[in-house]
Amino acid sequence: MTSHLFRAVAAALAMAACTAVAFAQAPAYPAKPVRIVVPYPAGGTTDIIARLAAAQLSERLRQPFVVENRAGASGAIGSVAVAQAAADGYTLVMGTASSHGINSALQKNLPYDAVKDFAPVTVVASTPNIIVVHPSVPARTLGELLALAKARPGQINFGSTSPGGSPHMSAELLKMMAGVDMTHVPYKGASPMLTDLMGGQIQAGFDNLPSTIAFVRSGKLRALAVTTAQRWPGAADIPTVAESVPGYEVSGWFGLLAPAGTPKAVLDTLQTAVAQAVRDPEVTRQLRNLGAEPVASRPEVFAQQIRADVDKWRGVVKATGVTLE
């Protein structure tokens, strides 16, 4: 009995020792470079915020976080690439209200499920969309632009950064609620849209505030309204759409997501690092100068936000009848 007991105890101790050694040898996350896929072109708001987040994560987690732009299909191409990647935390996506909210409502054959195929990490920042016009347009307020659109049905051309994106859907919601007819001109990204708007090829534009506010401040574009329910910090001189169209509200967000099944410890490591970053006064200053507000929500809160956005935009698509062009 004693001999058998001794051997059993020895075997148990040996197994425990091997487990401890294996655990000690397991590399801490991250142990190699991490890729952040931006499912939109370089130079837009998503890209700007992703590169700021990547720099902060690289500094805090001591591994390179590398941004890769994989644009197309209103964020679907880059997003599905991440959904299909290994669930190990080394491939992330900087998702948006478009890629992980509107797409689920608007694209019938979307190759991913925004809720089931991703593990939300955190919302990095939120921002309003903004309505801007070329300085030659005889409208200095949103009310004047809507009056002009009613007087000239279909003759006001407005650009957006992608068909089915948050700026485009902001416009469609405004058209429905204000009862106006304006013609949508879709672009592949903020840069070409803003170039044409400043060149006078289109009269109005809907965009995320961060990629547009510099042109407003320089006088190259005139801001008429932001889409959030309240005026935005740092741009408090710009009215809200709701001041002219009561009940209107659209908010944009930019958040990191991993493939579904990514270990919770990895998600927590990333969320903690982002939370530390946005508490840094210099990072907060940079985001607010862009027109964005730092968030750093917990993964479970972010997951609830995605589900709510999917439900909201399904209702808007059904009410407006909008389809992808």
TrEMBL record:
UniProt cross-references to InterPro entries, sorted A to Z: BUG, Bug_dom1
CDD domains in UniProt: PBP2_Bug27
One matching Pfam family: TctC
Keywords: Signal
SUPFAM superfamilies recorded: Periplasmic binding protein-like II
Domain of life: Bacteria
Signal peptide location: 1-24
Family to which this protein belongs: Belongs to the UPF0065 (bug) family.
Official protein name in the record: Tripartite tricarboxylate transporter substrate binding protein
Organism for this UniProt entry: Comamonas brasiliensis
